[in-house]
Amino acid sequence: MHIKKYGTIKLNSFRPLCSTKLGLEAIKKYNFPPFIDASCRREPDFQNSYPSISSLCRQGKFAPHLRINDIIVYMTVGDLYLPYKLGHHLVAILQVEDVFKTHHEGAIAYHKEGLEMPSNCMVPDNYPLDFDKTAGNFKNNSQLNTFLSHSEKQKLIIGKARIKLWNEDYLRNSKTWQCFVKTKPLYLNINDPRQILRSEFIDIFGKLPNTRTPNKITEKQLIDLAKIVGLELLLGGI
Predict the structure, then answer these.
(1) Quick check: 95 and 73 in contact, CB under 8 A?
(2) Which positions ≥6 away from 238 have C-beta within 8 Å?
(3) 15, 51, 111, 161 - which has most CB atoms within 10 Å?
(4) CA-based nearest residue to 96, from 129, 73, 130
(5) Would the pTM count as exceeding 0.90?
(6) Strands, DSSP E only, in 77-217?
């Protein structure tokens, strides 16, 4: 794949749906791809044909700094996803196609192009996902296991209350950091993404990279990451 124009290249991470027991139940119940985002507002929304990025999760640390043609590599955080493999998985390589000042502007653009509204677009009538379609937002496994031990009726009541608070938190973030980013996938695998071995991280970065605050990476590092998933990238030139 030849990419003539590109800007800053960044490496980012996200928590996939298959990272908790609740998420695994959602995958089985709704036939979701296991490596989509885990929250009630998919961030990014990998199931959209043009995955969207906002500031719902990282507030001002990431999305407000993105510009058209920037490239973002997305990998999972290094949790254990039973029955999936332990470690980081390279899920997507996205390129920014457009940057909107607000979620409302983004919604208008998606609508005009006949595209499905992204899950993380905070506009009226675009509601958050039900709690049983997420991996939960519990602080630890003990809290999650307690929730799972409840009856279905109790879980429904608790889930609705948690979604309300979860979504209100996202709404506050969207009002403070309003930008909304449309991307196009250069690579995307949400079903069975390639695991990146620790030795491969060492070869490419010299260490295991920290993505809590997404860092810039080099052209060569992007090319080497793409090769791991069988994607040959040619950057720049004619």
Answers:
(1) no
(2) 4
(3) 51
(4) 73
(5) yes
(6) 88-100, 180-188, 194-196, 215-216
